[in-house]
Specification:
The complex is a heterotrimer of chains A (about 240), B (about 290) and C (about 325). By secondary structure, chain A is α/β, with parallel strands linked by helices. Helix content of chain A is about 35%, strand content about 25%. In chain A, helix 6 runs parallel beside helix 7. Classes of the chains: A alpha/beta (about 240), B mainly alpha (about 290), C mainly alpha (about 325). Chains B and C meet through helix 4 and helix 11 of B and helix 5, helix 12 and helix 14 of C.
């Protein structure tokens, strides 16, 4: 079943075309990798999907429903959660409160929300930092907090923007198995990433963007050997 | 109600004059905002500070404020640099709230420090030419007002030369446009910030001195000019320094000419409403970025 | 709540209830007046902080709501003989409606928002000066026969008004405590911290800002109504006053701790006595030094802004003397 379809989306910023006629699909249960050189438009696409940007042309269809142009706070309750490339913690609130704020979307009662929040923090391994102010965490911890916050929203579709940046090889392995486990529990994922070891170990399928256009779309072995893709990355994939 | 040509011309001239004062205060505000992204709520009170320093120099040493103008600029410039180092620098990276409350605190300290020091009295700067008039046909223009207009234009011109012809001015412009790029070119940002703040409040102080030549001054006068300065800058467009100057002139003209037709409170009311409307619908003002 | 906190709370409440009577018996009019102002400003500061500290929307325009509340209570009393017992809450409601009306300003962000709220105070001042009952001269509650004192809420001295203010403060604290402990409280803070993040959590920023505005402006209006019955005189210059009504609660909230629940109250109880002391003892006695009270306020604000931005309660929390929330 198709969870998400991006249909011919074009996004312009004044004279700059950030996305040009991009079409892609995400199927239920898969882990899709979205890659491309810097500036290719990956985060822009994410912003269009999640409602932070309105495309000039094209549609975003989620579970058969046209969500193009809806504001982010209407899209999240439908079952789409995301993390941000440049982490955005709620700095003057504690780690637990950060996640709790997200938990309220599905659980209005404080006790329930607290419970779900603690579980989410357990999953990402931040339980011992629950009472620290989010602003005091280091970047890697903040990324884990972003993930916990996204998880507590109980999404069907999880969009991850460079969640592996700054992780050491051990942490990368840990993140891969965590995400695979969540995937097996029913969460469909789209992963934007630069760290190739992470992407190749995790995804089933790859979509490649270059200068705002889709230049490849298929199983990871195929795409990573596609000459167009290799050329786009110039010096080859890390 | 018959309005004679004479009154209109008179209103035009005084509008130009008072506008040129507003223009200086706004100019300073725009410089500070352009370079540092800080809204200096205390801007109009540095103007009052300048006016009173001029007054004191006249009373105690008998020096005409026009002669001590450069000295006054220097004094307020230094106070500005000091303020920047002590109060503004620490909160540049802090949330905007801290900026707002800090500059507001500076407003209170300067305004009421002035009042406690000088007493809550209105003062008049008694220069010999204060009541002099020049006749142009059927119109008479007050001499200090004329001088003030001239000096304001000269200051704006000097600033223009500074910004476009000197290295320091170019560095300032560069910092305003792109802080990161400026740093990469070896410009010391901290220096630029201090320069900008000192310059901004110093120019405002000049405005105060000029105003004192034909207007009575009192410690709380900043309260009145504060909003006018903001309205002028928003009108001219934050980020456009000369837009701010023009904005000030326009506000001055609108103020005096509309005074011929409508009551003062309605006029102020309209100005404030227009201010909010501009913020909402055309925040770029006339020339801003 | 732990036993220690329970005991502390009980002592404070008992004190607040006994002091007014004590002051009345000992004829300490000045102390009573100061206590009244502490409580009144507590109401105003808590109200301001709900929008400014929790939701992060720093308004310099709260005097507008105060004035609307004050005038409503006065006009209802003078022209329609409606008792302030009803007039004060109605004043709060009208103030809340005004707040709702001004919500379009939420389109502006950070300093633009603050700047525009500053402008609204002067706009209202001029509007009331030109068009309100009493115009620039203002309105006065007349002297009433003894039987009508309760109906008119017209008493000598501050003593009874302290209880009136305490009652409203209690209601305000209870309501805010309730709101803050559930999703609304966290949503507001999220909006303050990062609106984009908040949106990604399903939060509609405008909706919650308006909610915060309604609560905030309501209690500000109530404070205005209480002011009316205590001082029996309103004019545009007293109630639409930027420094004494709009800025004062901001300083008190900052001093006490903007990101905390009790901060505004603590801040008011610290700031008001200092300010009033300077104002009544020095400034009134030596008019030559008019402005000293504002200078002191500026110095305090300066110090807090730069050195202790989290305020007294925030500082105590960071040192571990008390727990968060």
């Amino acid at each position: 079943m198709r969870v998400l379809r991006v249909d011919n989306v074009t996004k312009r910023f004044g004279g700059l075309v950030a996305l040009r006629n991009v079409t892609m699909e995400v199927n239920e249960g898969e882990i899709l990798g979205l890659i491309g050189p810097n500036g290719a438009g990956k985060t822009t696409l994410l912003n269009v999907i999640t409602g932070y940007l309105k495309p000039e042309e094209g549609k975003v269809i989620y579970m058969g429903k046209d969500i193009t142009g809806l504001p982010p706070y209407k899209i999240t309750p439908l079952g789409i959660a995301r993390t941000f490339q440049i982490v955005k913690p709620l700095s003057n609130m504690t780690v637990l409160e950060n996640v709790l704020t997200g938990a309220f979307m599905k659980h209005k009662r404080l006790e329930e929300a607290l419970e779900k929040s603690k579980t989410a923090l357990d999953i990402v391994g931040l339980s011992d930092k629950s009472d620290l102010l989010a602003g005091s965490l280091n970047v890697v911890e903040k990324k884990r907090l972003e993930l916990a916050r996204a998880l507590v929203l109980e999404p069907k579709l999880l969009l991850l923007d460079e969640v592996a940046a700054g992780l050491n090889p051990v942490e990368i392995e840990g993140m891969i198995s965590l995400l695979k486990k969540l995937n097996s529990e029913g969460i469909t994922m789209v992963v934007i990433e630069h760290v190739m070891k992470f992407i190749m170990g995790l995804v089933d399928r790859l979509v490649v963007l270059h200068y705002g256009e889709k230049i490849a779309d298929g199983p990871k072995e195929e795409v990573s050997n596609d000459p167009k893709v290799i050329e786009a990355y110039l010096g080859g994939i890390e | 109600m018959v309005i004679e040509l004479g009154s209109i011309i008179g209103a035009f001239v005084s509008g130009l004059v008072i506008g040129s004062i507003y223009a200086l205060v706004s100019l300073g505000l725009a410089i500070i905002w352009g370079v540092m992204n800080v809204i200096n709520f205390a801007q109009a009170d540095f103007m009052a500070l300048g006016a009173f320093i001029g007054f004191l120099l006249l009373e105690s040493l008998g020096i005409d404020p026009l002669i001590s103008l450069i000295l006054i600029f220097g004094i307020v410039f230094s106070i500005g640099v000091l303020t920047q180092r002590v109060a503004i620098e620490p909160i540049l990276k802090a949330p905007v709230l801290s900026q707002i409350t800090t500059t507001f605190a500076i407003l209170l300290i300067i305004r009421y420090g002035l009042e406690v020091f000088m007493g809550p009295y209105t003062r008049v700067v008694e220069v010999p030419y204060r009541d002099l008039f020049i006749r142009f046909g059927s119109i008479s223009v007050s001499v200090p007002q004329l001088i003030s207009l001239a000096v304001s234009l000269i200051v704006a011109f000097l600033l223009y030369l500074f910004m476009s012809r000197t290295f320091l001015g170019a560095a300032l412009k560069a910092t305003a446009q792109d802080m990161l790029a400026a740093q990469l070119h070896g410009i010391d940002i901290k220096y630029m910030y201090r320069l900008a703040f000192g310059l901004g409040v110093g120019i405002s102080a000049i405005g105060g001195v000029l105003l004192s030549l034909f207007y009575p001054i009192y410690p709380e006068m900043g309260a009145f000019f504060c909003m006018i300065a903001f309205i002028s800058v928003v009108l001219g467009g934050f980020g456009s320094i000369f837009g701010a100057y023009l904005g000030g002139i326009i506000i001055g003209l609108v103020e005096t000419i509309s005074a011929l037709f409508i009551s003062p409170s309605l006029k102020t009311l309209a100005a404030f409403v227009v201010f909010i409307l501009i913020l909402l619908f055309r925040p770029k003002g006339m020339f801003g970025r | 709540m732990r036993l220690r906190e329970l005991i502390l709370a009980s002592i404070i409440i008992a004190l607040l209830l006994i002091l007014p009577i004590l002051f009345m018996v000992l004829d300490l009019g000045f102390a009573a007046a100061a206590l009244f102002l502490c409580v009144l400003y507590s109401i105003m500061s808590m109200a301001w902080n709900f929008l400014g500290g929790y939701a992060g929307q720093v308004s310099f325009g709260h005097a507008v709501f105060f004035g609307v509340g004050a005038y409503t209570t006065m006009v209802l009393l003078l022209y329609y003989e409606v008792t302030p017992w009803i007039g004060i809450p109605i004043g709060g409601l009208l103030a809340a409606l005004t707040g709702l009306g001004l919500s379009f300003l939420f389109r502006l962000k950070s300093h633009w928002f603050s700047l525009s709220t500053l402008a609204t105070v002067t706009i209202f001042l001029l509007l009331f000066q030109e068009f309100a009952p009493g115009r620039a001269a203002g309105l006065q509650v007349p002297i009433v026969p003894r039987e009508k004192e309760f109906y008119y809420l017209r008493y000598a001295g501050a003593y009874y008004y302290i209880y009136l203010a305490l009652a409203y403060l209690a209601v305000e604290l209870l309501l805010m405590r309730y709101l803050v402990k559930r999703d609304i409280g966290y949503y507001l803070q999220a909006i303050r911290e990062d609106e984009e993040t908040a949106m990604s959590l399903g939060i509609n920023p405008f909706k919650y800002k308006v909610l915060a505005m309604l609560v905030s402006s309501f209690f500000m209006g109530v404070a205005g109504g209480i002011y009316t019955v205590r001082f029996r005189f309103v004019d545009p210059y007293c109630v639409f006053d930027i420094l004494l009504i709009s800025i004062y609660p901001v300083i008190a909230s900052l001093l006490g701790g903007m990101y905390t629940f009790w901060g505004p109250v603590i801040g008011s109880f610290v700031f008001v006595p200092i300010f009033e002391y300077v104002r009544s003892n020095i400034v009134t006695a030596f008019p030559r030094y008019y402005g000293l009270h504002f200078l002191v306020a500026g110095i305090i604000l300066f110090f807090i802004s730069l050195r202790v931005p989290r305020g007294i309660v925030g500082w105590l929390e960071s040192k571990g003397y008390i727990r968060r929330g």
